[in-house]
């Protein structure tokens, strides 16, 4: 049964776009794409929801089958193991609610991350104790050994993520070299490695950035690398003012200590060296990983044909517009700006990204082209469905979602 279920996305991905439509196409894409950060986050989120449902069913079935063993709801009269299990279930529910509705509840991101970590560790610890002293499934040495190994694996993961990894980052600091104002309430933050050579990365990947805080402080934020890996010694992030941390980056002073945990992600043209060409579709600050790829391709004198569809509300908010024009002279690049609210004398594309617009600018023969999409989630959905309608194979469409939490 499990094997049949895991084969479903592969079957949908192999089907023609007209067959794998709607939910099926989206499901296949998310399940079969290389494991970028967005895929991992969605998997984490929905697996947590499934886990909550299964634990709740476990509690309901235990109560229905043997009410006496479960005992009353009042923790003063219930067995300690049962109360611990109920408390773990409540913590998991609180963790899930605060994560799925963080913005609606008005919970600030950094505060939510710390609370999320604490709730997860507490819930896991209580659940381990509950199972260890209450579950009758551990009635043999083999089962108890397996449960102990699983518990130690969870503990090891927590130690690695919360202690060992920050400790390694502490030994490889960066310093802010420059902060440059960009269009659209954005800044480019250039970092210089201190006492080490930095790290290798592929254009389009991302990293977790912490500025002015210890890596143990749980105040890191994920941003795409906007620089080219062909220019060693420095890395650059382009950040739009969307929250407290990103807004504060405009006031960051050169010399400030920073820590960078990376690189991560599968959103890179370097993963497809045999591609005939690349089509980039970006919205707003979603241009950041794409400018990284364009800079790298230009530095390598890559001759392949490129297309960039770049959507913004206003021309004055369009990031890198001057550099993109200059890159067009170094690359075989067709640049298509799309403005939602253009000036009266604007001669480019107007409105929103749509299938007809893509079809008009792309060649009829699109075999071998790979498509990279990054920006707001609604724009990504429109672009993916437009490409599906244009019969672009699923394996050649790569997207990365910025807004994950």
Explain briefly what this protein structure is.
The protein is α/β, with parallel strands linked by helices and 405 residues long. The chain has helices at 2-14, 22-32, 37-65, 67-70, 80-100, 102-105, 109-134, 141-170, 244-248, 287-299, 321-330, 355-361, 377-389, and strands spanning 174-182, 186-193, 206-211, 221-224, 234-240, 257-264, 277-283, 305-312, 332-339, 349-350, 369-375, 397-401. It has 13 helices and twelve strands.
Could you explain the architecture of this structure?
The structure is a single chain. The chain is an alpha/beta fold. The chain has three domains: 2-168, no CATH class; 174-264, Translation factors (Elongation Factor Tu (Ef-tu), domain 3, Beta Barrel), CATH 2.40.30.10; 269-401, Nucleotide-binding domain of ferredoxin-NADP reductase (FNR) module (Rossmann fold, 3-Layer(aba) Sandwich), CATH 3.40.50.80. It has 13 helices and twelve strands. Strands 4-3-6-1-2-5 form a six-stranded antiparallel sheet. β1 (174-182) and β2 form a beta hairpin.
Instruction: Going across the biggest sheet, name each strand in turn.
Output: 4-3-6-1-2-5
Strand content: 15-25%
The number of E-state strands comes to: 12
Counting DSSP H or I runs of 4 or more residues, the number of helices is 13
Task: Please describe the structure with a list of short key phrases separated by commas or semicolons.
405 residues; alpha/beta; Elongation Factor Tu (Ef-tu), domain 3; Rossmann fold; 3 domains; six-stranded parallel beta sheet; 13 helices; 46% helix
Helices and strands, with pairings:
Layout: H1 2-14, H2 22-32, H3 37-65, H4 67-70, H5 80-100, H6 102-105, H7 109-134, H8 141-170, E1 174-182, E2 186-193, E3 206-211, E4 221-224, E5 234-240, H9 244-248, E6 257-264, E7 277-283, H10 287-299, E8 305-312, H11 321-330, E9 332-339, E10 349-350, H12 355-361, E11 369-375, H13 377-389, E12 397-401
Parallel strand pairs: 7-8, 7-11, 8-9, 9-10, 11-12
Antiparallel strand pairs: 1-2, 1-6, 2-5, 3-4, 3-6
């Amino acid at each position: 049964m499990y094997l049949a279920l895991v084969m479903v996305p592969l079957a949908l991905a192999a089907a023609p776009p007209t067959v794998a439509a709607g939910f099926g196409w989206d499901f296949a894409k998310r399940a079969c794409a290389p494991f970028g950060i967005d895929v991992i986050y969605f998997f984490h989120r929905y697996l947590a929801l499934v886990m909550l449902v299964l634990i709740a069913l476990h509690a309901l079935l235990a109560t229905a089958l043997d009410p006496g063993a479960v005992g009353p709801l009042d923790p003063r009269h219930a067995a300690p193991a049962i109360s611990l299990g109920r408390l773990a279930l409540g913590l998991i529910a609180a963790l899930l609610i605060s994560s799925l509705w963080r913005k609606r509840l008005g919970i600030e991101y950094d505060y939510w991350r710390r609370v999320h970590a604490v709730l997860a560790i507490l819930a896991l610890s209580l659940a381990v104790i509950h199972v260890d002293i209450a579950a009758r499934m551990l009635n043999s040495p083999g089962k108890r050994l397996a449960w102990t190994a699983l518990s130690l694996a969870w503990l090891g993961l927590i130690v690695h993520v919360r202690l060992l990894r920050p400790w390694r980052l502490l030994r490889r600091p960066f310093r802010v070299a420059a902060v440059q104002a960009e269009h659209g309430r954005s800044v480019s933050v250039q970092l210089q490695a201190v006492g080490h050579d930095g790290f290798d990365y592929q254009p389009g990947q991302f990293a977790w950035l912490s500025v002015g805080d210890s890596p143990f402080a749980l105040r890191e934020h994920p941003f795409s690398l906007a620089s080219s890996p062909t220019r060693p010694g420095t890395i650059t992030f382009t950040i739009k003012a969307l929250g407290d941390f990103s807004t504060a980056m405009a006031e960051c002073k050169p010399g400030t200590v920073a820590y960078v945990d990376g690189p991560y992600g599968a959103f890179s043209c370097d993963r497809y060296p045999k591609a005939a060409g690349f089509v980039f579709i970006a919205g707003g600050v979603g241009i950041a990983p794409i400018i990284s790829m364009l800079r790298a391709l230009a530095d390598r004198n890559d001759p392949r044909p490129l297309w960039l569809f770049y959507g913004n509300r206003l021309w004055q908010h369009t990031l890198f517009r001057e550099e993109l024009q200059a890159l067009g002279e170094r690359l075989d690049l067709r640049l298509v700006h799309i403005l939602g609210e253009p000036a009266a004398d604007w001669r480019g594309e107007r409105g929103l990204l749509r299938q007809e617009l893509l079809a008009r600018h792309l060649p009829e023969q699109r075999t071998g082209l790979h498509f990279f999409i990054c920006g707001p989630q609604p724009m990504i959905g429109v672009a993916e469905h437009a490409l599906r309608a244009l019969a672009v194979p699923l394996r050649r469409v790569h997207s990365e979602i910025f807004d994950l939490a």
